[in-house]
Structures are given as C-alpha cells and as structure tokens.
Amino acid sequence: MKREQDQDIRKIIHIDMDCFYAAIEMRDNPSLFGHPIAVGGTSERRGVLCTCNYEARKFGVRSAMPTAKAYQLCPDLQVLPIRMDEYKKASAIVRSIFLEHTDIIEPLSLDEAFLDVTGTQECFGSATWLAEKIRKEIYEQTQLTASAGISCNKFLAKIASDWNKPNGQFVIPPEDIASFMPNLSVGKIFGVGKVTLKKLNNLGIETCGDLQEWSVVSLSEHFGVFGQRLFELSRGYDERPVNTSRERKSISVENTYAEDIPDLNLCMEKLPNLVERLKQRSLNKIEQGIKGLFVKVKFNDFSQTTVDSSFDHIELHKYQVLLEQAFMRGQKPVRLLGIGVRLNTDTEVQLGLEF
Ligand code: TTP
Ligand code: MG
C-alpha cells in the first residue's frame, strides 16, 4: 500500500442518473409519474426488465428481473418498450456537460461516469459544490435527476453516489474514511459478487470492519490475488486512475428465445446466426487480440453456465465444441444462448438481442 497522502490529493466524482431509462419515459409522458413503471421486454416474449422507477421498487421489482415475475410482485406495473435512441440522446447531453468541467471522464455505462476534478479551479476548488453544479445543469438540460458521490478515489465515490439516491449526493472526505469503512457491508466492495460474498460470510466476515481484522496473507490464502484488493478496499484504499480510454474486455451477443430450445441439436442450429452477429459486432474492435472464446447457456430453470476456452479465432466449429460442453452440464431446455470473445483489457460490452 502506498502512502496515505497519495490518495488524499485526488478529487473524484461519480455521477449516476436516477432510474435512468424509466426517468426518461416519465419525463416524456408525465402521466406516468406516481405509477409503478418499468422498461424492458414483454412477459409474452419472456423478456427481462432493464430498470424500473422508485414506485415499482417499493414492490420489490428490480433491474434484470423477468417481466413475468415483476407482474407477480406488482400487478399494476406498466412495462414500456426500450427506446434506446432516446436514452443515448440524454446520455450524450449529460456527457457534454461533464466535458465542460473536466477532460478526465470514465463512462461506465450510458448513465454513469467517474470524473477526476482534482485540478479544478471551479467552485473554489470544491468537488462537492462542483457536483451540485453538474447535477443542476443535468436537470436543466435534460429534466432528469442524477445522484453524485464525491471522494478521493473511485471505489469510495461510487459507494457515496448510492448513499443519498435519488437526486442526492454524499461526500466521503479523506478524514472520514477510517470511521466510514468499518460499518460498510462487504457486499458493497467492487468485485465482490454472490460467490465471494458467500465465501466471506462463511468466514464470519460481514462488514469491512470484520475484513480489516484479516492479514493480507490470510486473505490471499482464501481469495488468491483478490485477497490483496480486499485488504486495500476494506480500508477505503483504491489507486485506480480515472481511465479515459477504457478498452473492451469482451464482446458478446446473446438471445433470450421466445420458447425454450428443447435439445442440443436445436441449440446448435441457433449458433450460425449468433456467430455471424458476433463477427459483425467484433469488426475493428479486437485489434488487441482474442484471449479466448466462451459460450453461455441459461436453462429453463434459470441456472446458468459459461464455458471458456483459449481458442483465438471466431469460428463456428469452436463454438459448437463449447456449446456441447455447456449444454451437457444442465441437459435441460435452454432459454438463453450467448457467445463471445474475451479480449485483453477493461470494459465489458454486451449486446443483448431478443428474437
Ligand atoms: P443503473 O444505474 O444500474 O440503474 P438505474 O439508473 O435505472 O437506477 P438507479 O437510480 O438505481 O441508478 O443502470 C442504468 C440503466 O442501465 C438503467 O436505467 C437501465 C440499464 N440497465 C439494464 O438495461 N439492465 C440492467 O440489468 C441494469 C442494472 C441496468
Ligand atoms: Mg443509474
């Protein structure tokens, strides 16, 4: 770990729009305000929700939930079709606002970005005031609200933007890190997914405070290279720079089928189309070389498996080999098939296609 003062000097803002797609739908049709709404695929076509507004969240409705399940939780839910062009337009306006304040911007998705404002002269150099100003400008130009987190690194700024959501912001100043971290749930740590969370919980680790009692050596024994990251993040330490030129880590295409595909042969028939789409999507995007290919299969009971390989060319017969392995793991009807390539860097671009 480097010297503490290294991270004190940075000023990072994380901006995240509030229920982004749903907020755009409400803005464009104000009669929807106050009603539970979501954006996503229809239940007849076995779609999944992209997001929902806060009224719908009160019923337990969430992003990535199958639409049919969302209706069970909230029978009055209105599910609206995805209008990606509108979301992209709003995102471009938001990004142009960021650019007026800093060049060091790392977009994470259409609705979320890190800004490094360390050197700013605006707002008397206060990142907190600057975040207020940016949110106000976003509202004036898009009629959409955003939340912001302000701290000295990306990890803490992202945690902070969730703290007073929606339409709020929260600052974690360097002098508060030591008191802030112990109560933070380990589930909030960047990179801790379901599996790692379970493993941590089984070790009796629920909070970053619990984690802080472990040595790097013990954490590395249990979590490999991630042990070092857990040691640092549990203390609120994160050196990652705001990366203005993120490169893709993988490119993939996937389809959720309107009806389950009952057997392996019929799954195989779907592959050529997916491979063609993947080739088109990958054009000019894989200069850094392919590290491997993968196939993802989701079965009709929602269990999911991914088979990876180190093949380095997009070829149908290679995906056939992987698909067979993936299918044999479940041997059940399939609702979703995905294929992709792994590249050598940072961002994940997923292009979901529903037929
Ligand atoms: P999020 O910022 O995760 O969610 P949100 O903006 O809808 O809600 P919040 O107020 O909690 O920030 O994602 C931004 C947009 O990305 C979201 O509006 C829709 C899309 N999205 C998907 O399409 N699928 C997903 O699984 C998620 C999480 C988001
Ligand atoms: Mg958001």
Structure description:
There is one protein chain. It is built from 14 helices and 13 strands. Mean pLDDT is 90; it is low at 1-8 and 346-355. It has helices at residues 4-8, 20-28, 54-57, 67-73, 84-99, 127-142, 154-161, 177-180, 194-202, 208-212, 216-223, 226-233, 264-282, 316-330; strands at 12-17, 37-40, 49-52, 78-80, 105-109, 112-116, 146-151, 169-171, 248-261, 292-299, 304-309, 334-342, 347-354. The longest helix is centred in the last third of the chain and has 19 residues, at 264-282. Strands 5-6-1-7-8 form a 5-stranded mixed β-sheet. By secondary structure, it is of the alpha+beta class. Bound molecules: thymidine-5'-triphosphate (TTP) and magnesium ion.
Salient structural properties:
single chain; 355 residues; alpha+beta; 5-stranded mixed β-sheet; 14 helices; disordered C terminus; binds thymidine-5'-triphosphate; binds magnesium ion
How much of the residues is beta strand, in percent?
Answer: 15-25%
Give the overall silhouette.
globular
Listing every helix as H and every strand as E from the N terminus to the C terminus, the arrangement reads HEHEEHHEHEEHEHEHHHHHEHEEHEE
Ligand inventory: thymidine-5'-triphosphate, magnesium ion
Measure the end-to-end span: 49 Å
- The low-pLDDT segments are 1-8, 346-355
Number of continuous helical runs: 14
Strand order of the largest sheet: 5-6-1-7-8
Helix content: 25-40%
Would you tell me the overall average pLDDT?
90
- What is the CA-atom radius of gyration, in angstroms? 22 Å
Summing up helix and strand content along with how strands pair, one would put the structural category as alpha+beta
Number of strands: 13
Major β-sheet, in short? 5 strands, mixed
